[in-house]
Design a protein that fits this description.
The chain has 463 residues and is an all-alpha fold. The chain has helices spanning 17-28, 32-35, 37-44, 47-74, 81-88, 91-126, 131-148, 153-178, 185-189, 197-215, 231-267, 272-281, 283-317, 336-353, 359-388, 403-422, 424-435, 437-444, 454-459. The protein has one domain (17-451): Amino acid/polyamine transporter I (Up-down Bundle), CATH 1.20.1740.
C-alpha cells in the first residue's frame, strides 16, 4: 500500500537497495572529508587525538544507525526524524524540529556544501574568487539540482548511483596515490598536543563539531521511505552497509592526508586534500583532488535536495507547515513546491553566510547545537515509543538495548553541551531562529494538526 496525501496523489516506490545505499553514501560523503580534517587537526594537535575524533564519530554514527533502523523499520514514512518525533512527542516538539531543520540545520547544510563546491569550481577555473561570484555559483547549483530532481524519483535514483560510484572511485585513487611511495611512520607519531584529562575530552568534542558534520547525512535514506521498495528490509540494510563503507574510506583518506603532510602542515592547510596530492604528484594531483571535490560536493547537494524536501512535504501534509508544500506534481509524483521553497531559503543562507570571513565553518557553527538537541530527542524516542506503543510491530530492534541507546545519548549530550560553550553566539542564533517557530505554531497551525493519535501511527504500518 502507498501513502497518499490529502489530494489523493501519492509518492511512488521506485528506489531499490542500490539507490538507497547510494543515497546514504552520497549524503555522507560531500565536502566534509575534504574540508574538516584541517580544523579537526588544528584543535587536536596530534595524530592520536585526531583519529580519536574520527573513530568516536564513526562509532556514534553506527550506534545512531542501530537506533534509526528500529525506528524506520517500524515507521517507514517519508520525513526522516520528523516522523519519529511526531510519534513520540507532542506536536509542538515535532513542529520545532521541522522548523529548525528548514530554517537552520538542513538548508544550512545545503548552503555549506554548495558554497564549498562553488569555491572549488571557481578556484579550478579562475584561481581567484570573490564572495559575490562564490554566492552566485552556489545558488545556481542549488537551482539547477532542484530542477533536475523535479522530474521523478526514478531519475533521481539513477543519479545517486552514478555519483556514489564516481566519488568512491576517485577517493580510492587518492588513497592509492598517497601511499604509493610508502608509509611515513613519523607523521603518525608526531604532534604538538599535550592535551590530556578533561581538557582532552573538551578538545575531542569541540573538534567533533566538524567530525559530526563530515559524518552527517547517514540517515538520508529514511527521508524517502515512502519511495523505497521493501523499506523495512532495504532501509536498515542500506544504513549499515553505507555507514560501514564510509567509515572505512574516512579512516583511509585521513591516513593518506597525514602520511603526506604530517600534523603541523595538515592543521594549517586551507585545502588539505589538494595540498597532499600536490606534494605527491604535483599539479596533476591538485587537479585530481579538485575534480574529486567537485564530483563529491555536487552529488552531495543533489542528494540533500532530494531527501530533505520530503520533510517539508511531510510536515505540510500534516498541516504543520506551509500548505502549498504538500502538493505533489501530478505527472512526476515529486513534492516540487517543497523543493522550490527549500532552494529559496538555501539561497538566502548562502548570501548571508558569504558575508562572513569563514563562511563554511560559520554555517556549521550556526546549526550544530540545535541539531544536537533534536538528535538527542530523536534517539530518546526509541525509549519513549517502546513505553508508549509496546505492541506495535518492530521488524528490527536495537541491538544491545538499552546500553546502545545510553551510549548514544551520552555522546550526543556531551557534544551538545561542548558545542554550546565553544560556539556560544552561533548556538544562540540557531536557538533564536528555532524558537521563532513558536509564533507560526501559535497562530498559523490549525487545531486539528496539534492532535496526535495512536491510530495515525498505526496507519504507518500499512505499507
Amino acid at each position: 500500500m502507498t501513502d497518499k496525501d490529502n489530494s489523493g496523489q501519492h509518492l511512488e516506490r521506485k528506489l531499490g537497495l542500490s539507490e538507497t545505499l547510494s543515497i546514504v553514501v552520497n549524503r555522507i560523503i560531500g565536502s566534509g572529508i575534504f574540508r574538516t580534517p584541517a580544523p579537526i587537526m588544528l584543535i587536536a594537535g596530534s595524530a592520536g587525538i585526531f583519529f580519536q575524533v574520527w573513530v568516536l564519530g564513526g562509532i556514534a554514527t553506527i550506534l545512531g544507525a542501530l537506533c534509526y533502523a528500529e525506528l524506520v523499520a517500524m515507521m517507514p514514512k517519508s520525513g526522516g526524524p520528523y516522523v519519529f518525533l511526531k510519534a513520540a512527542y507532542p506536536p509542538v516538539v515535532t513542529f520545532l524540529r521541522g522548523w529548525a531543520m528548514f530554517f537552520v540545520s538542513e538548508t544550512g547544510a545545503i548552503a555549506a556544501v554548495s558554497l564549498f563546491f562553488s569555491e572549488t569550481a571557481i578556484k579550478l577555473a579562475l584561481d581567484q574568487s570573490s564572495p559575490h561570484s562564490v554566492a552566485f555559483l552556489a545558488i545556481a547549483v542549488v537551482i539547477f539540482l532542484t530542477a533536475v530532481n523535479s522530474f521523478g524519483i526514478q531519475l533521481s535514483g539513477k543519479l545517486q548511483n552514478i555519483f556514489s560510484l564516481l566519488k568512491v572511485s576517485v577517493l580510492l585513487i587518492i588513497i592509492g596515490v598517497s601511499f604509493s611511495k610508502g608509509i611515513n611512520t613519523e607523521n603518525f607519531t608526531s604532534g604538538t598536543s599535550s592535551i590530556s584529562g578533561w581538557a582532552g575530552v573538551v578538545a575531542i568534542f569541540s573538534a567533533m563539531r566538524y567530525g559530526f558534520f563530515a559524518y552527517s547525512g547517514w540517515e538520508g535514506a529514511t527521508y524517502v521511505a515512502e519511495e523505497v521498495k521493501n523499506p523495512t528490509k532495504n532501509l536498515p540494510l542500506s544504513l549499515f552497509a553505507g555507514i560501514g563503507l564510509v567509515l572505512l574510506i574516512y579512516l583511509l583518506i585521513n591516513s593518506a592526508y597525514l602520511n603526506i603532510l604530517g600534523v603541523h602542515t595538515m592543521a594549517n592547510s586551507k585545502a588539505v586534500a589538494s595540498d597532499a596530492m600536490q606534494a605527491t604528484i604535483g599539479t596533476a594531483g591538485a587537479i585530481l583532488v579538485l575534480t574529486a571535490i567537485l564530483i563529491s560536493t555536487f552529488g552531495n547537494v543533489n542528494t540533500q535536495i532530494l531527501v530533505k524536501s520530503r520533510t517539508w512535504f511531510a510536515m505540510s501534509r500534516d498541516k504543520l507547515f506551509f500548505k502549498p508544500l504538500a502538493q505533489i506534481h501530478p505527472k512526476y509524483k515529486t513534492p516540487n513546491n517543497a523543493m522550490i521553497a527549500q532552494a529559496v531559503w538555501a539561497a538566502v543562507l548562502i548570501i548571508i553566510s558569504t558575508q562572513a570571513q569563514n563562511a563554511y565553518e560559520t554555517v556549521i557553527d550556526f546549526f550544530s547545537f540545535t541539531s544536537a538537541v533534536f538528535n538527542v530527542l530523536t534517539f530518546a524516542s526509541i525509549y519513549v515509543l517502546r513505553r508508549k506503543y509496546p505492541n506495535l510491530p518492530r521488524p528490527y530492534k536495537v541491538w544491545g538495548y538499552p546500553y546502545t541507546l545510553i551510549l548514544v545519548l551520552l555522546i550526543q549530550v556531551t557534544f551538545m553541551i561542548t558545542t554550546l560553550f565553544t560556539a556560544f553566539i552561533p548556538s544562540l542564533l540557531g536557538i533564536a531562529l528555532t524558537l521563532s517557530g513558536c509564533i507560526y505554531y501559535r497562530y498559523a497551525v490549525p487545531a486539528e494538526a496539534k492532535q496526535t493519535s495512536a491510530a495515525e501511527l498505526s496507519s504507518g504500518q500499512e505499507i
